[in-house]
Amino acid sequence: MIDGLRLYLGRQASSFWRYVAEQSIYLVFSWVPTVIGIGLRGVIYRVILNMDGWAAIENKVRLLFANNIRLGHGVYLDQNVYLHACPHGIEIGDNTIIMYGAILHVYNFRDLPNSRIIIGRDSLVGEYSVIRGQGGVEIGDRVYTSPFTQIIAVNHVYDDPELPFIDQGITAEGIVIEDDVWIGSGAIITDGVRIGKGAVVAAGAVVTEDVPAHTVVGGIPARPIREIDNQQEIKTEKLIYHLKKGRN
């Protein structure tokens, strides 16, 4: 029982006293709704995590290993977001939005050297998306992931048919997503992939190989559909809307 308790606590926080401090603060402040709760957490959570400027954290957000989390100015964490930030942690850049139910998980209990999740500024992680950072995930600026996307920087080894796969270890090569990438709903990005600047991943695609810059890919496994360039004909019959200046 004692060993089980130690294992549980070791999966929750950097130390026993960090666990006590973090859970005590969550008990008092994590449930408070509306802008009152956002304001309280914007002040009090600075005790347990790193915050550059002001971040908006809704109620029901779950944070583990909070001392390994860094939030930039203007970051928004929607309800039911879950951040698990084993070393080397999670960094979220200025004005980035993490939508309802998204999971960012750096589950590193194998001494993986590159485990982390780094997201640039002005990006968006869609509802119920999952990012697993064992091999390291680096996401650039102005990257949008639609709902239910998966970015999984880890893979199981299963080469030996005589040995259970859980005993064969894992690989963790890492994933890089450059600036200005749009990932469609339900797409899966597998370990070891790099997606170039300005690329688009179609909904439901499974990306197993690198994607060149300014290229649209789709399918299972994903294959190039077309390049994005100024030679493409613009379909004028569609209405195009833009953000108004001064609004997100």
Describe the protein in words.
The protein is α/β, with parallel strands linked by helices and 248 residues long. It is 14% helix and 27% strand. The protein contains three helices and 25 strands. The chain has helices at residues 2-10, 16-29, 34-44, and strands spanning 50-51, 56-57, 62-64, 69-71, 76-77, 82-85, 90-92, 97-98, 103-106, 117-119, 124-125, 130-132, 137-139, 144-145, 150-152, 155-156, 170-171, 175-177, 182-183, 188-189, 194-195, 200-201, 206-207, 215-218, 223-227. The longest helix is centred in the first third of the chain and has 14 residues, at 16-29. The protein starts with a helix and ends in a 21-residue tail after the last strand. The model has no long low-confidence stretch (mean pLDDT 93).
Oligomer: single chain
The best one-word shape is flat
Spatial order of the strands in the main sheet? 2-5-8-11-14-19-22-24-25
Residue-averaged pLDDT: 93
User: Over all CA atoms, what is the radius of gyration?
Assistant: 20 Å
The ordered string of helix (H) and strand (E) elements is HHHEEEEEEEEEEEEEEEEEEEEEEEEE
Largest β sheet strand count, sense and barrel closure: 9 strands, mixed
Total beta-strand segments: 25
Query: Hey, roughly how much beta strand do the residues contain?
Result: 25-35%
Number of helices: 3
Report low-confidence residues grouped into runs of 5 or more. none
Distance between the termini: 50 Å
Class from secondary-structure proportions: alpha/beta
Percent of residues in helical segments? 10-25%
What is the element layout, followed by pairings?
Elements: H1 2-10, H2 16-29, H3 34-44, E1 50-51, E2 56-57, E3 62-64, E4 69-71, E5 76-77, E6 82-85, E7 90-92, E8 97-98, E9 103-106, E10 117-119, E11 124-125, E12 130-132, E13 137-139, E14 144-145, E15 150-152, E16 155-156, E17 170-171, E18 175-177, E19 182-183, E20 188-189, E21 194-195, E22 200-201, E23 206-207, E24 215-218, E25 223-227
Parallel strand pairs: 1-4, 2-5, 3-6, 4-7, 5-8, 6-9, 7-10, 8-11, 9-12, 10-13, 11-14, 12-15, 13-18, 14-19, 15-20, 18-21, 19-22, 20-23, 22-24
Antiparallel strand pairs: 16-17, 24-25
